């Protein structure tokens, strides 16, 4: 596979041994009608080397489409290590077998959903610590044109009408910082599919007729996030951003059940976020600043 390209859509035709299966436009189209739409939209697919196909797509952040994989995060890490994927480059797949979410929980999904990993840009100081909130905010903002007002469940789950439609997992890997993103575009797990004690019910996107395919949707979201990220860091301070983020935070003023490590649970009211991005809670008049944990509305 060639070194990192600044733009374009590539298909990892021969896969990556042990990480991703081989894939073709025809096999991608068979996974879901949304992928079939993508294969028509981005045709023709031309060979750029023996292992990679390039789509006839307008300029934009580099996107690598791989076959069924263990995790798009694993594939992205490998491509970054080979010099094949740069900042704001991403990997997307129709199926992954070892996807995970917050606290290492399994991420349930199905073909037709967005299963992707984004290579995050570097950030200094507090901006680095706020990265999960920044990505959650930017993705929620980009999704509003697709499915309506989206809120962020601290720190980085996406809610539509109080139901989870997506999530983000940020991990620091050797030489890069990756954000795994899952969006319930075409399918959402039902109550019986979710783990015991799950936080919120899941939902899928309303109105698939407005979605230009999984790949088309993902390219739009990445381009919007890249533009928004650059503008945000050039225009605002972290304090300014947190003021903006508070208006998108879910459940402000509502009572929630808080679960911290080792099964510690208590009730509190969501008040906002602190100056360093902690979730601020009120528990019987006592302020609590949560750095890690889960909250569930009561």
Describe the structure in your own words.
The protein has 298 residues and is of the alpha+beta class. It has 2 domains: 9-237, Bira Bifunctional Protein, Domain 2 (BirA Bifunctional Protein, domain 2, 2-Layer Sandwich), CATH 3.30.930.10; 255-297, Roll (SH3 type barrels), CATH 2.30.30. Helix content is 26%, strand content 26%. The protein contains 7 helices and 15 strands. The strands form 2 sheets. The protein has a 10-stranded mixed sheet with strand order 2-3-1-4-5-6-10-9-8-7, sandwiched between helices. A hairpin with a 2-residue loop joins strand 9 (163-173) and strand 10. Helix 5 (131-147) packs across helix 6. The longest helix is centred in the last third of the chain and has 22 residues, at 214-235. It is globular, with a radius of gyration of 19 Å. The mean pLDDT is 89.
Question: What's the alpha carbon Rg, rounded to whole Å?
Answer: 19 Å
Low-confidence stretches: none
State the helix count: 7
**CATH homology group of the largest domain:** Bira Bifunctional Protein, Domain 2
**CATH architecture type of the largest domain:** 2-Layer Sandwich
Given the helix and strand composition, which structural class is it? alpha+beta
Q: Kindly, what is the distance between the CA atoms of the first and last residues, rounded to a whole number of angstroms?
A: 51 Å
Oligomer: single chain
CATH topology of the largest domain: the name is BirA Bifunctional Protein, domain 2
Count the domains.
2
Q: What's the CATH class label of the largest domain?
A: Alpha Beta
Give me the strand/helix succession: EHHEEEHEEHHEEEEHHEEEEE
Beta-strand content estimate: 25-35%
Principal-axes geometry comes out as globular
Mean pLDDT: 89
Q: How many strand segments?
A: 15
How would a textbook summarize the main sheet? 10 strands, mixed
Q: Share of helix among residues? A: 25-40%
Widest sheet: strand ordering: 2-3-1-4-5-6-10-9-8-7
